[in-house]
Specification:
The structure holds 2 protein chains of 2 kinds. Chain A is an alpha/beta fold. Chain A has 12 helices and 14 strands. In chain A, 38% of the residues lie in helices and 21% in strands. In chain A, the strands form 3 sheets. A 7-stranded mixed β-sheet of chain A has the order 3-2-4-5-7-6-12, with helices on both faces. A 5-stranded mixed β-sheet of chain A has the order 9-11-10-13-14, sandwiched between helices. A two-stranded antiparallel ribbon of chain A has the order 1-8. The relative contact order of chain A is 0.13. Chain B has 9 helices and 7 strands. The chains are: A alpha/beta, B alpha/beta.
Chain lengths: 321, 276
């Protein structure tokens, strides 16, 4: 059976995270999940039932969650600190900065229901600042998986890392993007689709929308590349520069504020390498973010097949190069 | 180590930390002076930790949550042989690892601290790991009293009691002064004993400059099986330097040449009186 990226619906990345973590925990009693009354939203109820001694419940206290996780990690435990991304990376940002990153304690910070997964619940529950905040803090690998494969690989890779890492998962089922046998490497983006007119450099749950846009553009004779930039730090600069050298335009796509996220990181790479390419950042603008389902919010801000195809079309038509 | 020897060591530690603060032109003088006896008793009578066993997972842990009093910790760690004391000549100099708050770059230091309200949560994590592993190491952390206004401490106190962490001891350096003045006028803390008890801790209060009493209290932990232990150490900010005692301006005051000489003479007199 041939596999076509973007056609088969899988599970929510959060489910895959929880399943992968349970496998790791069953293999290694030092694996711990630390939660802030978040085992349900983290899909960790089966984990808690299967390995109850490997779940540490902290209660609704994110600062304490991260500090305790750092202490556990300092003793050699393999610690996944699991909490809604909005609270984990804002409420506990100082603990992430000092207790984990500055102190180099190898905690695996897991931001669940990230981005606008909790879209209808309002900005208190949105995490569209987390990539910017963590990019400005030294010593934190940042991984935003796009599909189930990237999620499982990222969780396994995180378990092996000796330094802090942040993982970010949403709760909507994701479409499979990668062919069997694809190799996953932290810091190395994955090419989802080849193309030479425009490159979508997308991350996390937006990648599927870039792929669908690329499929639409193909019908018009526009060749669109789709790169899954699952690691925000360290950033795969080679893939960004290759996109600039081999395509006529770049559109970055992220479930994050346009300030300080993937797009601005790519822009900095391109400018400082003297690459002048037509370029757009698609994310959330500096305004009171609209509310609704994740998909409604995505569509509103142009993170959809139609919206992204339109952005690419306009960008390609904007000037001749 | 006898009480007399411990008392002499405390005065020597005070002399040294003042010397390095003076040389650096920076440091947290008052709080370092107030917690010296606590650190002295911990490192010389209580903790099973040394340069030789620092990589051993079974070692006792000390985490200094009131990180700004790092000068006291530095002189004690140097005395214990974790690093040459001459290293402290570089305190707070450009690119010196001996910065103004604890970091793991320095052998003997478990965790980077300095932002307040962080050490207790970390200590809870270490103690919880000890329980999970059936390890018999003990975990001690030193909190400032002003630091107790950080809400994160109270989150961590809940967790420590919830998990019955009787391998964990928190010591409050209760010198009653913080940078803006008296703790009770900045943000009222009392009745601390009742508050800690209500959070599920077993609490004892002790004269934080009486090395014999400190050794007795810290040697009788846990106070109650199944409960974390809290020691309220009643101390004097600026202890043993007459003009620094009970004065918040010495929180991070650096003595002038004249003040330094006066402090040194006072401490040397105390040293003689102690029998050195």
């Amino acid at each position: 059976m041939s596999f076509e990226p973007g056609t088969e619906l899988g599970k929510a990345n959060l489910d895959v995270f929880a399943e992968t973590l349970l496998e790791l925990a069953q293999d290694n009693p030092d694996v711990l999940a630390v939660t802030s009354d978040s085992r349900g939203s983290g899909k960790l109820v089966p984990y808690a039932a299967a390995v109850p001694d490997q779940l540490v419940e902290i209660g609704i206290a994110e600062q304490n969650l991260v500090g305790v996780a750092a202490g556990l990690a300092s003793t050699g435990k393999i610690v996944f600190a699991v909490s809604p991304a909005s609270f984990l990376t804002a409420r506990a940002l100082e603990q992430i900065k000092n207790d984990v990153c500055y102190s180099d304690q190898p905690v695996k910070l897991v931001g669940i229901s990230a981005g606008v997964s909790y879209g209808a619940l309002g900005s208190t529950h949105h995490s569209i600042h987390d990539l910017a905040a963590l990019r400005a803090i030294h010593n934190c690998t940042i991984i935003v998986p796009a599909d189930n494969f990237e999620t499982a690989e990222a969780v396994k890779a995180a378990a092996r890392m000796f330094h802090p890492v942040f993982l970010r998962f949403g709760k909507r089922p994701m479409t499979h993007l990668h062919r069997p046998g694809t190799a996953f490497q932290v810091g190395k983006s994955l090419l989802v689709r080849e193309g030479s007119d425009v490159a979508f450099i997308a991350t996390g749950e937006t990648v599927i929308h870039a792929l669908l846009a690329a499929t639409d553009l193909e019908r018009e004779g526009i060749s669109a590349r789709v790169v899954s930039m699952h690691t925000i730090r360290p950033l795969d600069t080679d893939a960004i520069l290759a996109a600039a050298d081999e395509c006529r335009a770049i559109v970055t796509v992220e479930e994050h504020s346009c300030a300080g996220g993937l797009g601005e990181a790519c822009a900095a790479v391109l400018m400082q390498a003297n690459r002048h390419v037509r370029f757009r950042i698609v994310g959330f603008p500096d305004e009171d973010t609209v509310t609704g389902s994740q998909l409604e919010i995505f569509t509103h801000y142009g993170i959809s097949a139609q919206g992204l195809a339109g952005t690419a079309r306009k960008l390609l038509a904007s000037t001749d190069q | 180590m006898t009480a007399v020897v411990l008392r002499i060591k405390s005065i020597q530690y005070r002399l040294r930390l003042l010397e390095y603060i003076k040389k650096a032109g920076a440091g947290h003088t008052g709080g370092s002076l107030s917690c010296v006896d606590i650190l002295n008793v911990l490192y010389n009578r209580v903790l099973n930790v040394s340069p030789e066993n620092f990589a051993d997972s079974r070692r006792d842990r000390y985490i200094q949550s009131k990180g700004h009093s790092v000068e006291a910790l530095y002189v004690v760690l140097a005395d214990k042989g974790f690093f040459p004391e001459s290293d402290l000549e570089t305190l707070c100099r450009f690119r010196s690892p001996y910065v103004g708050h604890p970091t793991r770059k320095i052998r003997g230091i478990e965790q980077n601290t300095g932002a307040l309200g962080h050490g207790l949560a970390f200590s809870v994590g270490v103690a919880l790991a000890g329980k999970k592993d059936n390890a018999d190491y003990r975990v001690y952390t030193l909190l400032g009293d002003g630091e107790l206004a950080e809400g994160s401490n109270w989150e961590s106190m809940l967790t420590a009691a919830h998990y019955h962490l009787d391998n964990l001891t928190a010591i409050v350096d209760r010198n009653q002064l913080q940078i803006s003045g008296h703790t009770e006028s900045v943000c009222r803390l009392e009745c601390l004993t009742e508050k800690f008890q209500a959070f599920g801790w077993s609490v004892r209060s002790v004269d934080g400059h009486d090395v014999t009493a400190l050794a007795d209290v810290l040697g009788s932990i846990p106070f109650e099986v199944g409960k974390p232990s809290m020691v309220i150490a009643r101390t004097i900010k600026g202890k043993d330097v007459s003009f620094m005692e009970h004065d918040a301006k010495w929180h991070h005051g650096v003595p002038s040449d004249e003040q330094y000489e006066r402090a040194r003479r006072e401490l040397e007199t105390l040293l003689m009186e102690a029998g050195a």
